[in-house]
Design brief:
about 70% helix, mainly alpha, globular, about 120 residues
């Protein structure tokens, strides 16, 4: 079932999400300071490519460095990505067919709000 969901996700806009996150990651990696943020954008991009069959675990014991980077992530405005995924989840949940896509956007929202100290599990 996750294979069919990933194919539909890819066709209905998942590839565009992947491209946007990937290009943003490349732009962030142009500077040395932005490399940790670019790596997290690459992680979000590859989750956006095929989100079905995967889950995001936010680790509670990730340390103060991950917490500091998450604070910088929020201060620099990357929290808007999580807000967009929340809005898209609400729009997808309007129909019964869109509920699995809404759940995928919720997973992406969890990763895009606090990317440092989180793990993508299969």
């Amino acid at each position: 079932m996750s294979f069919i969901g990933n194919i539909l996700w890819f066709i209905l806009g998942g590839f565009l999400l992947f491209l946007m996150y990937f290009v943003a990651g490349l732009l962030m990696c142009c500077t040395i300071i932005g490399i940790p943020f670019g790596v997290q954008l690459f992680r979000i991009a590859f989750l956006a490519l095929c989100p079905f069959g995967r889950d995001v675990d936010v680790l509670s014991e990730s340390g103060c460095l991950a917490m500091g980077f998450n604070v910088l992530w929020v201060l620099f405005g990357w929290w808007e990505i999580a807000l967009v995924h929340l809005l898209l989840a609400f729009l997808c949940a309007i129909t019964i067919i869109g509920i699995p896509f809404a759940k995928a956007h919720i997973r992406l929202m969890k990763l895009s709000f606090m990317p440092f100290g989180s793990r993508i599990s299969c």
